[in-house]
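Example 480, ligand 6-O-phosphono-beta-D-glucopyranose.
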Amino acid sequence: MSEKLSFPAGFLWGGATAANQCEGAYQEDGRGLANVDVVPIGPDRLAIITGRKKMFDFEEGYFYPAQEAIDMYHHFKEDIALFGEMGFKTYRLSIAWSRIFPKGDELEPNEAGLKFYEDLFKECHKYGIEPLVTITHFDCPMHLIKEYGGWRNRKLLEFYERLCRTLFTRYKGLVKYWLTFNEINMLLHAPFMGAGICFEEGENEEEVKFQAAHHELVASSLATKLAHEIDPENKVGCMLAAGQCYPRTCNPEDVWQAMQEDHENFFFIDVQARGEYPNYAKKYWERLGLKLQMTEEDLSLLKEHTVDFISFSYYSSRVAAANPEASEETEGNVFASLKNPYLPSSEWGWQIDPLGLRITLNIIWDRYQKPMFIVENGLGAIDHPDENGYVEDDYRIDYLAAHIKAMRQAINEDGVVLWGYTTWGCIDLVSAGTGEMKKRYGFIYVDRDNEGKGSFKRSKKKSFYWYKDVIASNGACLGD
Ligand code: BG6
């Protein structure tokens, strides 16, 4: 087989989900309430996830899709069997913090929560699937938000450390790939999801966000340290919402603007991969007069415990301009971007740019020289199932095929080091951005709609069989 067509031996093919978007069972077996539970579908969602509207409990007249999601809590055996049938080598999932520590600040974990994930990991291993676990995916116990103000409070370091110690000890031998915080840079754009932050009247929002970022970054280093101490086999990664920012034109002012926007995202990974705050960030804080609390011990933790690999999500590239008013905006993964006239868009306005993935892979590789893992990539689209739940989703196949070819080129022709690829939403699940079910990403259709109706029945889409072939041929069946 031509080397050009296939992926390295041992390449980790798979799919990804997050607890709050698929598990449901939000009150079962002692689970506590989490931020993600109280985010409804509908027009208030954006204000809530960005920390501008306070909704700390369920309110009359709203629908909360995470309460039941796709009920994976009760279907996980069936779902993992389907992942096994596709030949997954890895399955990325996240832990619901409030299943393990329902309030977040207890000293002892909830055994039923621990047992749930233990059973799930064992089920994965039955099919030769290596779990890849995100410790926090937009997930924070509500008690920690009400009582401590979320990640703005340094106390969360202690609670997170306890969570990590519990997980690494209990799952030693069952899990070896860990991600500390999903899309850590999302904290700046969706602080309630990323850090359990809801702003108080009159406070300095930038200061609150960067203080919370510091706490998460130190927590991530602490987790890396612990993971390595508890099991030297553990590999810990950071996780970035990636997508290169292009300048709208070659006007240096636009190039400069694009560079600033990239810095906002790389800021986090610069710390997690290189171990120190970049000068551009320190200068930015200085200009704004931000007073951030950090200790010498924090800085040495950051320095000494950098990540083993860099994982990221990629849906699209972005565009920036010095004078953005002159361009049309487009929807994107919570971040706004200008419209790129050279690219087609999804039904949700996310622009489709497979070459942008190759560019992003090269830029991250050049910047950090650490192995990479693409842990999210996919197309959210409206599916039209037949009476058996079968969907002819050629649009999804085309999107994924183009991106897989781009990453194959990045590996085989550019020499980047990529450990694996997990498509986002390998089974239909609740959208994080909009709360919709109809924005589907899966290879597996789930009978559930935006209003919470449906039987939860699973069925295979056309892309299910296609991805199975991709994995079985290690990418070669895609041709040139
Ligand atoms: C990423 C998140 O931002 O994008 C996922 O890590 C999310 O949780 C995914 O689901 C796709 O976004 P959306 O808004 O279409 O669900």
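Summary: The domain at 12-478 is CATH 3.20.20.80 (TIM Barrel).
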